[in-house]
Design goal:
It is a single chain. By secondary structure, the protein is an alpha/beta fold. The protein is 35% helix and 20% strand. It has helices at 10-13, 17-28, 44-52, 96-110, 126-136, 155-159, 180-190, 218-226, 260-264, 273-287, 303-315, 331-344, 367-379, 384-397, 433-447, and strands at residues 33-37, 70-76, 79-85, 113-119, 142-147, 169-171, 206-211, 232-236, 245-250, 253-257, 290-296, 318-324, 353-355, 410-417, 422-427, 455-460. Strands 8-9-10-7-11-12-13 form a 7-stranded mixed β-sheet, with helices on both faces. A 6-stranded mixed β-sheet has the order 2-3-1-4-5-6, sandwiched between helices.
Length: 469
């Protein structure tokens, strides 16, 4: 819309077709992912900070400080990518090898390249060897970072790590930066332009993650889905530490429940198992297209419930909320639950909600229509012409708030990608968060998107003559 109230045309916003195409491609293409894995206290977070060129990851000389996988945007030699700091554990001698292998296994599924960090001053431990064996089978580029090589004399220690079978060890000092640039050069050379892991899985059964806090009934629901009423067609087997996917037939259609072996295991009390469960949950979400988040309807909503939901939204996956144990919910609890949902899940009103009982089978059949609705929304694309007509009408009725004495204008809109639906708005100024939320609500009212997160990216037009100055 121009200053005289008319909608802007392409000549008005002066971006040019090539620049628009480039911006859309940049917005829509998921960057490749580099996972940094290894046992505790080998310097993973220090290496991540060195790669980023800034202090982002928490670094402390205590194993297990990083409690989750955390992702950061990075840039090297013009290639943008995401660095995934996979974290450490509170190690116990018994479970450490399994935990390292579990971390490596998840990285195999969700990353485009993997850096295994080993302490060259200690040499290859049994946990390092366990991770190396898993990574050798990944089919992904794997780079061995021999860390804590602060001087040339330490390079002899790094050379001993050839024994891990991952090829040439790259001697680095994450603390001092020594050798990190050389490592990054070879890593970036091996990366695809866009993430192949993020976009994997076109065709075949739709991939479902069943996640939730411990003891919420995931095993019971999975058994109900694959038991008497529906049959497990077969298990796609892996090794003892590899995730196992189950193909389950529901309403005559195959669905792939990802990582169900890990999600089925009971979380023990041994040190490190909370992290083990967290890695499994992250891995299942990252590998899925749609997520069923199971919530115990008989108990108050918890911080753990919110945390799992945040993982799903951040990953951009379709979402179905399943409130389990409905057979234990009386009238008073239903009233309290409605209030909790209004208060704590107000931002998730777009997610289909199904009240079920895995124990009795109540309403479990309603999960399939909810999954199909969420996936249909997740896959939706809105034609550019229709989208711009929509924004023209919305902005005419409710213009963006004035900022700095000027009212921002939306010049052009396009849907850059689906899965999840991501929209790019070319504007003359910044759109405040409240107005973006308003636009999201209107998009949902008009186009549906039930069960799918929506992302809105704003590109502010350069001022006329800015590039010539």
């Amino acid at each position: 819309m121009t200053d005289d109230g008319t909608w802007a045309d392409e000549s008005d916003w002066e971006l040019g077709a090539e620049e628009v195409a480039e911006a859309i491609e940049e917005a829509s293409a998921p960057p490749p992912v580099v996972a940094v894995v290894g046992r505790p206290n080998v310097g993973k977070s220090t290496l991540v900070n060195r790669i980023l060129g800034r202090r982002e990851a928490v670094v402390q000389d205590v194993p297990g400080v990083t409690r989750d996988r955390v992702s950061y945007d990075a840039l090297w030699s013009g290639q943008r990518f995401v660095v995934q700091d996979t974290g450490g554990w509170e190690p116990d001698a018994k479970g450490l090898q399994q935990l390292v292998a579990e971390q490596a296994s998840v990285a195999m599924r969700t990353a485009d390249a993997i850096i295994l960090v080993v302490d060259a001053t200690v040499g290859a431990t049994s946990a390092d060897e366990a991770a190396a064996r898993i990574l050798q089978r990944s089919g992904k580029p794997v780079f061995l970072a021999a860390n804590k090589v602060d001087t040339e004399r330490g390079e002899a220690d790094a050379a001993e790590l050839w024994s891990l079978g991952l090829g040439e060890p790259h001697p680095v000092s994450a603390m001092h930066g020594r050798g990190v640039a050389d490592l990054l050069d070879v890593v970036v050379d091996a990366l695809p332009t866009i993430s192949e892991a993020a976009g994997a899985g076109g065709g075949g059964p739709r991939r479902v993650a069943l996640v939730g806090k411990p003891n919420v009934g995931k095993s019971s629901l999975l058994n109900r889905l694959s038991g008497d009423e529906r049959s497990v067609v077969h298990d796609v087997a892996g090794t003892t530490v590899d995730p196992v996917d189950s193909l389950i037939e529901m309403d005559g259609k195959l669905w792939r429940f990802v990582d169900t072996a890990g999600l089925r295991r009971k979380v023990g009390q041994a040190s490190g198992h909370e992290f083990y469960a967290s890695v499994r949950t992250h891995g299942a979400i990252d590998s899925a297209e749609v997520t069923i988040v199971l919530i115990d309807a008989s108990q108050p909503l918890t911080e753990q419930d919110q945390r799992v939901l945040s993982m799903v939204i951040e990953a951009g996956r379709a979402l179905v909320l399943a409130f389990n144990k409905w057979d234990l919910v009386d009238e008073d609890r239903r009233y309290l639950l409605d209030r909790e949902i209004d208060l704590d899940l107000a931002q998730l009103q777009w997610a289909p909600r199904v009240n079920i009982s895995a124990k009795t089978g109540r309403a479990v059949a309603k999960l399939v229509p909810a999954l199909e609705t969420a996936l249909r929304s997740w896959d939706t694309r809105v034609p550019t012409g229709r989208l711009n007509t929509f924004f023209k009408e919305v902005v005419a009725a409710t213009p963006p708030p004035v900022r700095g004495g000027k009212q921002p204008r939306i010049l052009f809109a396009t849907q850059a990608t689906a899965r999840p639906p991501t929209f790019v708005l070319f504007t003359t100024g910044f759109l405040e968060a409240g107005y973006r939320r308003f636009l999201e609500r209107r998009l949902r009212e008009t186009f549906g998107f039930e069960g799918s997160p929506i992302r809105i990216n704003v590109r502010v037009r350069e001022k006329r003559g800015a590039r010539s100055r």
